[in-house]
């Protein structure tokens, strides 16, 4: 109420009585007890998490000393917030003084600082990570339900689809999109999809901006996968074309989750013999994913030939290796690094993440094998080394399943039917899925949604953050399929066939 209304100025007698009633009720005293553990989180858990989150905002003793010494040396938490709230121009150092550029570089460096585990126990968990865990569990309620998916798939136009989405968590984002005059449907579809993606990016960046310590590093590692894909696509675009427009196009199509402030500067590199060496020395070496690139290229550079030209070797190696092989190797190194980091964190995080990451490793192993059928990678003499090299070195299939797929010094599995027969008698998670080649892709997506939904089980762990990211990727993939299908004129049967690939989440 306004101050005037609270004082009863210029109000009728009836309004004054209402104001007095509101005043009385605002100080109503509720009697105890407060309830037990079974109802606590439901009634007071969110606000308790909020106030514990506020605790992390108090100045520390070290910060007080810095203030009293009149020296502003940002710690990693303040650097993270400062860096993520900087404008894009400031992050790139455009129009800044040398001092400001040095500060921007410092913020950038500290924002990717890697904190080592373990994460601590129950006595300190809520104090450090409780607020953000409560937030991400709140985001869980924003996933589309099975009923909402059915409603979306019954729409006959993008305008109907937009209207249906206004009743979901995407409402405030989707309503800002409007179709231009004579605008093509595929462009309109892309604008709607971009709005849905911005919602996810806004939520995820909120988590990253407020994360501290080990959780900060954990969330950063989630972004490394898209960052690796962005760099790979740009490197290959530079190698394969002399047209700057093609490189700029690849840059525009980069995944925003894997954005890096200096990614645009890659366009300035010319196609030349020492491109990769120059690129690594000046750009990739300072990125948080540099170690995965060096892990990939180092064996090629560590040969016995002392006269080997590193630049020529890298160029030849990159041109000879398929893009998918290179990206899969880098993603494998990242997955193994995340597995080891989760083990270092320990506690409930390790218990949950172990299951999720081992599923991801096994899924990647099976998909690499299936996708190799009909490609040069499926040649018998390439099973035991080149294809096996792409398999993550952990999981339920490691090591016996890897040996079965790659062969024991002999040709491995070369077709889907043979793979299904080999695993038919095995008590493995994927064994039933490998018996139906026609529905394998759809069944794998359903299994993926079920497994990552378990990431929200239990409490006091980081697994829910990883599960949230993976499930959001599934949901965005579902929405893209629905947008693309409805934007094109198709008959009912064709639509039903395409909508079969839509994977509902948290479906009972």
Architecture overview:
By secondary structure, the protein is mainly α. Helix content is 63%, strand content 0%. It is built from 25 helices and no strands. α23 (440-453) runs antiparallel to α24 (463-487). The chain is globular. It starts with a helix and ends in a 9-residue tail after the last helix.
How far from one another are the termini? 44 Å
Pick out the low-confidence regions. Answer: 70-78, 304-308
Average pLDDT: 79
Structural class comes to mainly alpha
- What portion of the residues fall into strands of 2 or more residues? under 5%
**Element string (H = helix, E = strand):** HHHHHHHHHHHHHHHHHHHHHHHHH
Q: Globular, elongated, flat, extended or rod-shaped: what is the shape?
A: globular
Number of strands: 0
Fraction in helix:
55-70%
Biggest sheet statistics: none
Helix count equals 25
What is the radius of gyration computed over CA atoms, rounded to a whole number of angstroms? Answer: 27 Å
């Amino acid at each position: 109420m306004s101050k005037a209304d609270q004082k009863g100025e210029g109000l009728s007698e009836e309004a004054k009585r209402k104001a007095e009633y509101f005043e009385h009720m605002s100080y109503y005293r509720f009697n105890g007890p407060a309830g037990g553990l079974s109802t606590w989180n439901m009634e007071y858990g969110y606000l308790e998490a909020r106030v514990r989150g506020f605790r992390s905002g108090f100045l520390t003793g070290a910060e007080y000393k810095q203030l009293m010494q009149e020296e502003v040396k940002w710690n990693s938490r303040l650097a993270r917030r400062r860096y993520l709230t900087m404008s894009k121009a400031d992050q790139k150092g455009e129009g800044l003084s040398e001092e400001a550029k040095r500060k921007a570089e410092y913020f950038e460096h500290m924002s990717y600082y890697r904190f080592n585990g373990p994460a601590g126990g129950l006595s300190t968990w809520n104090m450090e990570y409780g607020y953000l865990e409560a937030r991400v569990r709140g985001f869980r309620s924003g996933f589309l339900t099975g009923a909402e998916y059915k409603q979306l798939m019954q729409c006959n136009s993008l305008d109907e689809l937009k209207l249906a989405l206004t009743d979901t968590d995407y409402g405030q984002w989707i309503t800002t999109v409007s179709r231009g005059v004579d605008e093509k449907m595929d462009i309109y579809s892309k604008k709607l999809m971009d709005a849905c993606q911005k919602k996810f990016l806004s939520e995820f960046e909120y988590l990253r901006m407020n994360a501290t310590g080990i959780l900060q590093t954990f969330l950063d590692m989630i972004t490394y996968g898209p960052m690796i894909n962005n760099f790979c696509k740009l490197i290959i675009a530079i190698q394969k074309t002399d047209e700057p427009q093609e490189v700029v196009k690849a840059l525009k199509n980069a995944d925003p989750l894997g954005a890096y402030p200096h990614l645009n500067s890659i366009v300035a590199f010319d196609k030349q013999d020492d491109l990769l060496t120059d690129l690594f020395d000046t750009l990739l070496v300072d990125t948080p994913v540099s170690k995965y690139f060096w892990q990939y290229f180092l064996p090629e550079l560590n040969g016995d030939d002392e006269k080997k030209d590193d630049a020529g070797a890298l160029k030849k190696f990159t041109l000879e290796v398929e893009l998918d092989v290179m990206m899969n190797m880098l993603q494998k190194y990242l997955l193994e690094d995340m597995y080891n980091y989760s083990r270092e964190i320990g506690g409930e995080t390790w218990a949950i993440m172990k299951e999720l990451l081992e599923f991801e490793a096994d899924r990647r192993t099976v998909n690499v094998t299936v996708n190799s059928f009909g490609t040069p990678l499926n040649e018998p003499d390439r099973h035991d080394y080149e294809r096996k090299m792409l398999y993550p070195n952990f999981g339920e299939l490691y090591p016996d399943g890897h040996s079965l797929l790659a062969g024991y010094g002999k040709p491995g599995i070369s077709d889907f039917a043979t793979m299904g027969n080999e695993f038919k008698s095995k008590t493995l998670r994927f064994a039933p899925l490998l018996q139906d080649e026609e529905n394998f892709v759809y069944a794998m997506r359903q299994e993926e949604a079920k497994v990552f939904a378990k990431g929200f089980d239990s409490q006091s762990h980081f697994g829910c953050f990883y599960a949230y990211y993976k499930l959001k990727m599934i949901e965005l993939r579902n929405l893209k399929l629905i947008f693309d299908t409805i934007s094109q004129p198709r008959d009912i049967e064709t639509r039903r066939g395409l909508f079969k690939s839509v994977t509902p989440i948290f479906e009972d």
